[in-house]
Structures are given as structure tokens and as C-alpha cells.
Specification:
The chain is an alpha/beta fold and 374 residues long. The chain is 47% helix and 13% strand. The strands form two sheets. Strands 1-2-6-5-4-3-7-8-9 form a nine-stranded mixed sheet, sandwiched between helices. It has a three-stranded antiparallel sheet with strand order 10-12-11. Helix 7 packs parallel to helix 8 and helix 13 crosses helix 14. The chain is elongated and about 80 Å long.
Length: 374
């Protein structure tokens, strides 16, 4: 079964309209690949819908392995690769879940699929507290050598990806859309960067209108690819809670960062903690203390990667005055007047610097012209 013609056949099959995970399993379980001719009646008896059965009949009748060269050329042109369930490169953690993806479309550093991964997910609209927690945990775990997995959404996911990109362990973005489709569109710069320095991953190759089911499918991959998942902010009914449920169903480790009881954004994590579904996460050290086997894996990985350290310091992107301001705000929240009194930076120039730092998402302005570091 583990041969190129078989894998090529399954890749082509997965792209037939109407063919989903369950239809693929029916064909695999019944060894239909070995049959030269498929019959519509037989397919329907197996549980395939009438219209899909007709398409499968046409597919089998017209299938030609010699089209492989054209497919590879197309992949190279569009800068992605294709990994099947039967490939050696397919991650073992995904093989262990109830519905492992049959086909993975990927772009970027394929070796990240073999690294130990940790999922960090949360709301699209995090509070300042949520942003700080995301940057803290993403940076600390990536620095330890764990690859950060998230769902490429705005908010917590985006922050987690950006912070992890500063390290060689990097990040894997699980897309809800096709591998060639950037969603959300405003994340295009990050999409391109992850495609070069991290890894983009999708179950699909054909761009299509976004629908809710795609997010559910994506969330199962996030949980399935990761040894543990961390929930940072999210309402009780949210995508991050769906990821949490997938992690629980897969019997994977689940952690949640507690938040203020009067914050709707913390309702989901607090609910998970209160009901014993997730462990409360208060520090990166705590995770390794509670999962000593993970620490052993990471230490072993470090032994084989003596030069694993921070790849680039984001502060290098800033001017000298901007670095001074960010360093001050990492110690304490300050008003613009307090920053002016400490730094003696001319007030007009200081206003410009603070605005630029807000745009770059290094700091955030609060009421009363109080600034905090993110």
C-alpha cells in the first residue's frame, strides 16, 4: 500500500467534488483501489451518495497515473508540497487521532512536522492581559524548543505565530482554507513569512468560500498535532473551546490560563479550569513540572541541536529610542508625561514613537495616555 502510485491515486481521489473523509475511508477499507472498474450501484450500497457515486465512477474510468508529472510541476509553481497518510514524513501524533487527515498540503519547513509541538489558541479579540499572556507563553515555550501550533486567526493565534517566529523551533499555522489561500486576508504578510520561516498546513488545495465546518476541521488538526493545548482567553462558545474539546476527546494534555471573573474573554478558560477539564497554567515552568516526560523530550532534542537559540530579536527592528521606550514599559506602565520626564525625548517626537510602537504592536495605549508593553 505504501507506494507512489497508491499515494498519487489517493491525492487525485481526494479532490473529487463531494469526496470527504468518510468516503475516502470507505474506499480504503473496501480496497477499491485494486479494482479497475467501479460501479455506481456498488458505491451507493457502500453508503456513497448518488451524485458522488457518479463522479467517482467517472474518476476511476478516466484516472491516469501518468499525470503525476503535471501535478508535481503545479505544486512547485505554487510553492507547496503534498504529504499523504502513508508517507514517512506524516506526523505520528496525527495518526493517533480518530479522523487523521488523509492528505496534508504544506508549505515551508517540513522538518517542523517531526518536532514536539504545543498548541496555543484563543479569542480573535484579546484583552491586553490576553496579549501579554500569549506573547509570554509563546516566546518562552518556543525558546525551550517547542514548535508553536495555532490556527492563523486574528488575535491570540496571530500573536502566538509572530512571537514563535523569533525562534528556530518556529511555528505551524493550520489554515481553515486551501494552502494557496490566505485567510484572513489582512494576515497576508504573516502568511508569506510563515511559509518561509515556519510551516503552513491545510487539508485542502482548492480555494473555496469559507464556511463554519472548515474551522471545526482545522481545530481537530491543531489539537491532534500537539502534545498539549493551551487556551488563552475565549468565550464559552468559541473556536478555542472547540479545540479544547478535541484535545479532551483525543486524551491530550489541556491547560488554560485563568482570567478575571468579570471578563467575558476569560469565561471559557475559567470554565475549563473550574470543571476540571483543564489544568490552570500560571507559568511555563509549571507545564514542564507537570509533564516531566515533555521536559525529557525537549532536553533530548536540545542535545541534538546545540545551536538552538533565538533566531532574531524583534527589538532589532526598532530604533534606539523605541528600544528605550519598550524597555521602560516592560518594567512598569507609564503615562506619556512620565516617559517624557525619564527619557527627555522631545514631546513631538515622543508622540510619533509611541504611535509607531502601537502600530507595530509592541505597546498599547490605555485611557489617560497610559502605555503598557505587550
Amino acid at each position: 500500500m505504501n507506494n507512489d502510485p497508491y499515494k498519487h491515486f489517493m491525492i487525485e481521489l481526494s479532490e473529487v467534488a463531494g469526496v470527504g473523509w468518510h468516503t475516502m475511508k470507505l474506499i480504503i477499507d473496501n480496497n477499491l483501489y485494486e479494482e479497475d472498474v467501479w460501479h455506481v450501484e456498488r458505491l451507493q450500497q457502500l453508503g456513497v451518495k448518488a451524485q458522488t457515486s457518479e463522479r467517482l465512477y467517472q474518476f476511476r474510468s478516466n484516472y491516469n497515473y501518468e499525470s503525476n508529472e503535471e501535478r508535481v510541476t503545479h505544486q512547485l509553481r505554487n510553492r507547496y508540497s503534498c504529504i499523504t497518510y502513508w508517507d514517512d514524513r506524516y506526523p505520528e501524533t496525527l495518526k493517533q487521532i480518530a479522523q487523521p487527515p488523509w492528505i496534508l498540503y504544506v508549505r515551508g519547513r517540513l522538518e517542523l512536522l517531526q518536532r514536539q509541538s504545543l498548541a496555543i489558541v484563543g479569542t480573535r479579540y484579546p484583552t491586553s492581559y490576553g496579549k501579554q499572556c500569549t506573547k509570554l507563553f509563546s516566546g518562552q515555550f518556543a525558546e525551550q524548543g517547542l514548535t508553536i501550533v495555532s490556527g492563523f486567526a486574528n488575535g491570540v493565534d496571530t500573536i502566538a505565530h509572530k512571537e514563535a517566529l523569533a525562534y528556530l523551533s518556529s511555528t505551524i499555522a493550520i489554515l481553515p482554507t486551501a494552502i494557496t489561500q490566505c485567510y484572513p486576508a489582512n494576515n497576508y504578510e504573516l502568511y508569506e513569512r510563515i511559509g518561509e520561516e515556519g510551516l503552513l498546513l491545510s487539508e485542502s488545495v482548492h480555494a473555496s468560500p469559507v464556511h463554519p465546518g472548515q474551522f471545526h476541521q482545522r481545530n481537530r488538526i491543531i489539537a491532534g498535532l500537539s502534545l498539549a493545548s493551551i487556551i488563552i482567553e475565549g468565550e464559552r462558545k468559541s473556536g478555542s473551546m472547540i479545540t479544547a474539546k478535541h484535545a479532551m476527546d483525543m486524551d491530550r494534555e489541556l491547560f488554560a490560563v485563568p482570567g478575571p471573573i468579570n471578563s467575558a474573554k476569560s469565561d471559557g478558560p475559567n470554565f475549563l479550569i473550574h470543571n476540571g477539564y483543564a489544568r490552570m497554567l500560571l507559568s511555563s515552568h509549571q507545564l514542564f513540572e507537570e509533564l516531566p516526560w515533555l521536559k525529557n523530550i525537549v532536553n533530548s532534542q536540545h542535545a541534538n541541536e546545540p545551536n538552538l537559540q533565538k533566531k532574531n530579536k524583534l527589538l532589532y527592528e526598532l530604533s534606539e529610542d523605541e528600544v528605550i521606550i519598550v524597555t521602560l514599559l516592560r518594567e512598569n506602565s507609564l503615562s506619556i508625561n512620565e516617559i517624557f520626564n525619564i527619557t527627555n525625548i522631545p514631546f513631538g517626537h515622543l508622540n510619533v514613537l509611541l504611535l509607531n510602537l502601537c502600530i507595530k504592536q509592541f505597546i498599547e495605549q490605555h485611557p489617560g495616555s497610559i502605555y503598557i508593553a505587550l
